[in-house]
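Researcher: Structure for this, please.
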Amino acid sequence: MYLEIIKSIEPEFEKALDFAQKKVASFRTGRANAAIIEDIKVECFGDLLPIKQLAAISSPSAKQLMVQPWDRSYLEPIEKALQREMSGLSTRVEGASIIITMPPMSEELRKELAKSLVQVDNGAKETIRKYRDQAWSDIQAKTREGLIREDDKFKAKEKLQEVVDKYNSKIDEIVSRKKAEIEG
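Model: Predicted structure, token format:
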């Protein structure tokens, strides 16, 4: 019974982990990374679409990204969206591509990114704690109802904490890797 309760909250833990991964991937470091721009919304055909649906994004060098729209008519809207959303980046059109050059990171930007990383870390772990507490409450309620034995309640608490620790560890790993990139 308690294993089903724990299994039922694992998808929520996965969502928290996925959120942290996506958020951290979008942080700009000194290296060019498609995740920085791929989800920027572009106004196209009266709709807002992410760049990744309108173009191929590649990294020809460590300091550059190249955006190659599937259709030449996407070039101008993509360039406008990039200039609007990523004002610190230098963009230029070369033929049917947009070249984005990453500026060197300032110490001030590094500190801001480090603060943002802490916020992502705390937010993801807070979500995990919320669902852990919910599962623990469910386990305690089932124990009071006689559906879970008292001995199993403590096994459930240990198992629940193992799962929480596993997800917190994954979040720590993601955050520390990005922190090393930012400082690097």
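Researcher: Any notable elements?
Model: The longest strand covers residues 55-61. The chain has two domains: 2-25+106-183, 34-101.
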